[in-house]
Amino acid sequence: MKSKKISFQAFEKKKYFHLKNRRGVADIISTMLLMAITVTGASTLTYFMNDAFISGNLATVNTLDSSSLNLLLLAYDTRDSSSLLTLIDVDNNISGELCGSGCIASPTNSLPENLGTEFIVLQIQNNGLNPIFLEDVAINNVVHTWDSETALIPLDASVDYLTGTSRPYPSDGTFSILPVSSGQIIQNNSNEIQNGQKVNILIKLSADNSDIRLNQGIHVFFDIGAPHTVNFLIDSGDAR
Description:
By secondary structure, this protein is an alpha+beta fold. It has helices at residues 2-55, 58-62; strands at 71-77, 97-98, 119-126, 132-133, 136-139, 142-146, 174-179, 192-193, 198-204, 212-213, 217-223, 229-235. It folds into 2 domains: 1-55; 59-235, no CATH class. The longest helix is centred in the first third of the chain and has 54 residues, at 2-55.
């Protein structure tokens, strides 16, 4: 009986060490699988992030920042054409590019048809809970400020205006804010945009902007008050 008992104990001890060794191997395999999943996930994330930056999809990248949700880019018109975003008389001189620095020899603030810098129209919406103030808009890193001289002045881009008079459209390197409406359009009296409000931003390119060829990317940077900034990449020559 004693020998049988010793034999049984030896068997149980051998079985214990066998199971322990198997658990050790299983732990190693689990650790290796976890490492493989981690490396694969990191590689995949790196690929998509790099692809986003390479393709210039800045708006998609910025959705990771909650501040970008406060401002939506609904539509834009960057054509070298006429009636931009259906705004009557907001016309560009059809030359195959959006004129900036190439127009510096022209009279300051002239319309594009008179060889002045050209227009871009952006339609945005304040998607936040509070009003925002559009401090400035940068086009390809050139800052354009709100033109306070356009406040409450009817939009009229059919004729050049004289320096020192009320501005029926923004001057070079500035923008005005327009209501999204039909009929006569009165430019907004401030750079404040109420929550939920849609507006059109009429930008007249600065003479510091390089001429923008069609089918090129345009980097648009909205400053709605520190530290809130929103970036988009749009195409020259497009209307969406």
